[in-house]
Amino acid sequence: MRVLNWSFLVVVCLGLLLPSVSHAEQKKTLGQWDVHYIVLDTTFLTPEIAKANQIVRSKYNALVNISVLDKDTQEAQNLSVTGSARNLLGSKIDLNFKKVVDGKAIYYLAVLSHDHRETFRFEVTVQQGNKQEVLKFQEELYVN
C-alpha cells in the first residue's frame, strides 16, 4: 500500500480533460458498489508521480485505474482487485493491481503494455469478504 499526495488525483483528473486521452472516466454500479474505471496513457503522469508509484512512463503503457465506492455512502472501499485484459486475438494479460491510498480515496492501479489501436476486453473482479462483483469493459488504446 502506498500513500500519495493529492497531486496524483490532480494528474488523473487532468487526464480526463485532455482531448488526446482516448477515454473519459466511466462508472458501473455493481451490487452495492459504484465502480469507477479509466484507462489512460502513462505519459500523462508526471515523472515524479510515476517514480513514486513505480510506474514506467511510456507511450506503449496504459494505466488502468479502478476505484470502488459504496453506492449509498460514496465512501472508498478497501477490497481485493484482480483482473485481466484480452486482446482481440485472444491473448490474455493478467493485471497486477497495486492499492494506492490518497487521503480518503483508494485507487487500484495496474499497467498494461499495448500497441497502437489495440483493443482489449477487460475483466476486473472486486471482492470484499464474501461479496464479489465482476466489471467487464472494452477499450481501444492508442500510442501517442
TrEMBL record:
| Name of the protein | DUF4426 domain-containing protein
Q: Which Pfam families match?
A: DUF4426
Instruction: Say yes or no: keyword Repeat present.
Output: no
Specify whether Plastid is a keyword of the entry.
Answer: no
> For this UniProt entry, which residues form the secretion signal?
1-24
Q: Domain named DUF4426: which ranges?
A: 28-143
Which species is listed as the source?
Brumicola blandensis
Assigned keywords, A-Z: Signal
